[in-house]
Amino acid sequence: MKNILKISAVLLALAMAFSSCTKVQSSMSIDDIPYKATVKGCLVYDMGQGYSNGKYIQQINPAAGVKVTVRVENSQLDPKGQAQGYTVYADTTDANGIYEIEVPSTSNGVEVKVKPETFTGKYYEVESIQNGAPVMKETEVYYEVNEKTISIIPGDLAVCDGVYTCNERSAFEKFDYNVRLQVMVGKNSYSKEYDKDNAKYVITREYVAANNVDLTIDVNYSSGVKTFMATTNNSGYATFAIPSKERVWNASVRVEARTFGVSEFTYMAEEYDDKVGKYIVNEYTIEGGTFEQFSPSSNSYRTITLYGSDEVFVANQKVAMVFEPYASSEDFGYSSYEWNYISF
Fold first, then answer.
1. Is the Cβ–Cβ distance between 250 and 303 less than 8 Å?
2. N or C: which end of the chain has fewer CB atoms below 10 A?
3. Residues sharing a CB contact under 8 Å with residue 288, sequence separation 6 or more, in sequence order
4. pLDDT tens digit sequence for 193-245
5. Which residues, including other chains, have CB under 8 Å from residue 239's CB and lie 6 or more apart?
């Protein structure tokens, strides 16, 4: 059961460390260390959901045939603490996931590092129901257990069990669905209407459709960020079909609308007219500027629930763009600040 991996260089270092004892130390072996302890444990892993005889089961299995190593720093075994390197002891788990490894110790005990090997496999979970029975989704994963440091003393039986965690293998990611994100882009605008009841014009501040705006969306996947692009139509909409591993996906998405320039912008303000003795609506033309993304911030990610193409729901995201005059343009008192209080 005990596979002791011995390295000649390590043995030589130990022999040198003990050379002050007797001449026979030149043939010193780690096995000659009188104190021993045993590290023993059981390893299991979770293969996900199963379905048998009309019942769901969770497939917790013993990790059979897995190599487990215990590493001991040689300096801990040397009374002078001068020995270099380390020695590795190993065993392979049996059909029940059990391993047992005998390691050397000192009278005061030593610290050892226990590490089961990583292996690949599959993970199963319910994806849908067909004809009254579950359809399982199969994912390629790798199973791993973090290295543990434990202390042992002579004659000790140190129990070091472990439960493997699984992680999806990015190279095997499958995107079986397309989910949709519809983005509507609006730009700020001023217009006026005549109020018959009060016999005056009133200003309407609103966002109107912004067509031919280039959009970029960044979507967070487990393997990294993927970027998609589209351009708004005459109604200010752009629709993205995004590869997904799920039919309904709570995705982390960042939306950015490209800034674009215009030669003029119509601004309206209600101002007091001394000649007529009342407030009137004045209209100004600002010569040149840009429309820039106002909300949401182009630097922030948002969680948006996206739906597959066969779903009746379509996720919507609105992007507001607000005019900013060129520094050289007369602004007539216009400020983009007031658009903080106008919803889109």
1. yes
2. N
3. 261, 262, 263, 264, 325, 326, 328, 329
4. 999 998 889 999 999 999 999 999 999 987 788 999 999 999 999 999 999 98
5. 180, 181, 182, 183, 230, 314
Q: What is the pLDDT of residues 69-85, one digit of tens each?
A: 999 998 888 887 777 88
Per the structure, the complete domain to which residue 33 belongs is given by 3-47+59-118+149-165
Would you call 258 exposed, middle or buried from its count of C-beta atoms within 10 A (0-12, 13-18, 19+)?
Answer: middle
Residue 296 lies in a domain: yes
Helix (H) / strand (E) element for 290: namely: strand 289-295
Are 225 and 219 in contact, with CB atoms under 8 Å apart? yes
106 to 37, 88, 155, 301: CA distances (angstroms): 10, 16, 10, 55
Confidence at 2, pLDDT banded by 50, 70, 90: very low
Closest by CA position to 282, among listed 269, 295, 272: 269
Residue 134 lies in a domain: no
Measured CA to CA, the distance from residue 6 to residue 20 in angstroms comes to 23
Rounded Cα gap, residues 283 and 205, in angstroms:
13
The distance of Cα 293 from the centroid of its chain, to the nearest Å, equals 26
Answer yes or no: is pLDDT of 28 > 70: no
Indicate the helix (H) or strand (E) that contains 323. strand 315-325
> In the chain, which residue ranges form alpha helices assigned H by DSSP?
8-17, 74-77
Look at strands 157-159 and 35-52 and give their pairing. parallel
Query: By percentage, how much of the chain surpasses pLDDT 90?
Result: 60
Query: Same structural domain for residues 254 and 337?
Result: yes
Kindly write down the DSSP assignment for every residue of 8-66, as one continuous string: HHHHHHHHHHTTTS-GGGGG--GGG--EEEEEEEEEEEEEEEEEETTEEEEEEEE-TT-
Q: Assess whether pLDDT exceeds 50 at residue 174.
A: yes
228 within a domain of the structure (yes/no): yes
Write down the residue that tokens 């990611």 correspond to. 173
